[in-house]
Amino acid sequence: MAAEPDFGELLFTLSNDDRLEILRLLMEDEQRMTDLANRIGSTPQETSRNISRLQDNQLVERTPDGTYRVTPYGSHIHHFLRPLIFLYSHRDYFREHTLSVIPSRFLSRIGELEGSGYSGDVMFSFHSVVQMIEDAEEYVWIMSNQILMSTLQPLHQALRRGVVFRLIIPLGLQPPAEFLEHVNREVWRGGRSEMRVRERCEYVVTMSEKTTLISFPTQDGKLDYLGFRAETGEAHEWCRELFLDSWMGSFEKPGFFESLRPLE
Description:
9 strands; Endonuclease, Chain A
């Protein structure tokens, strides 16, 4: 019986791109060795050697009918590879930005953002926020350290068609006068909009039931609005849960909201 591999041996096994791809493909379905070789563009001999190494590390096993499948242990290992793969895929971004402000229970699931696309253009991000609001049918949720004036009219129209709006802003932010004018209108005060504050907005989340944009802070704590765009799926759900976590940890209403004139 082969000796139990040490942790370094596991890392060495996972350091090969072909072996990682074989593991990923077997997570989808059981496959024969020749089919795997064709899918990864490798020779049967080299694929066989890579499968053997995965087997030696108990990540993959052969079935009685000759196909290969991921073991339960291999499935767990693959699950925890997802955060590393996501971070590696966006290593240029994370050299400048930090995830230290994200609660650990979300950080461990950061790999769920792998289905999102990186947005490296601030103006494109701002335009995407406006487009997201215009397309929303159910809700618009925003957590940001500033209020984008370009979103006010689209938000007003969204509220008129029944969209629910939630806003989280940092404590002490003084909204622009134009924003306060909008908030004082009946459509904003009729129960479909809620606003809360928190000590700091450490990251930016803007989302609807269809789309999410999320931006993480730079290493010095600034928000540059560069980040990731997600549609439906795991990435969208990860952002949704993160926003709700921030919402539950925020104060009920900002001070300026209480001081607005009552509706006539």
